[in-house]
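User: For my dataset I need records formatted as: sequence, then structure tokens, nothing else. Please produce one.
Assistant:
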Amino acid sequence: MKARAPTHAGMAADTAEIVDNPASANRGASATWAVQARGLRCQHGEQAVITALDLALAPGQLVGVFGTNGSGKTTLLQTLAGILPAGGGSLDLLGQPLATARTRIGYVAQTVPEGAFGRIDAASFVAAAWQGERWGLGLRRAAERRQATQQALHRVQAQHLAARPMAALSGGERQRVCIAQALVNPVRLLLLDEPLSNLDPRSQQGVLALVRRLCDAQQLAVMLSAHDINPLLPVMDQVLYLAAGRGRIGTVDAVVNAASLTELYGLPMAVARHDGYVFIHPARGFMPEASPHGDHSHSHSHSHSQRRGQPQAQAAHGSDVSPAPAEGGVRDNPPGAVEPSGGRP
């Protein structure tokens, strides 16, 4: 599988040096992080999927999450959402412990069980999540719920879908409504698990433009996992690549190179570039598949880009997660704009 890398002027070389502790450049700024994890252990049941993740994500950042089978993408997002308990380490979200911050975190699952929508319309679907941490509704609060529902649909440009049955919506329309449900409460961190799956290219671009606009206009922090990196290249700030229980976060040139991926996977990896495309593959033979634990099964190639001018998501050296330094990749298109997946010339 191929991924097209943007070719920005001044982008660093593939052999970018890995710094010992990039977090040191942001000491004293911890209050700004939407996600701050140290030694985070993510597990599904008794099985550890990610062993010791250090990372920080700033408000307004869009981070793509990628990896092979069983690498822990879904498990990580569900841990950050509070669906799965952390197996160890420390985790602060929006400057608070997870238990306190949960009401300000929105999560969109990868799949919805067959028949789950029934005959419910889009507005009712969104409204069902309003203040879901409280018991009951009460007639006196019905007006508040209705207003919150209308505002959430407006934020994703789906007001016209309010009265339509969820089962009758297209994939792109349904994904917008699902994001609206995640935004019906005043969230500051949005976690999207494979939101582009089964969407045509136009719908993918529409969803990504929406997410980029939410980051820029409302300073939402977003983590988004995906199969194909190509559509995300024009819009994401950083990428988190997971493999073999570890993770590396940074820019395309800092992460997607033979030395970095060989260290991450623990086997020789090769990265080929041609006509702006990046091809990732084992240097010899086939890549071994990990046993999936709460994660879907896929194996694919990735390449990644970065925006300049925001604090970087980070991973500290010395644990199972290796950090990647910032490079000079710049997203030149205006907020919310999404170019074709071929990237920028």
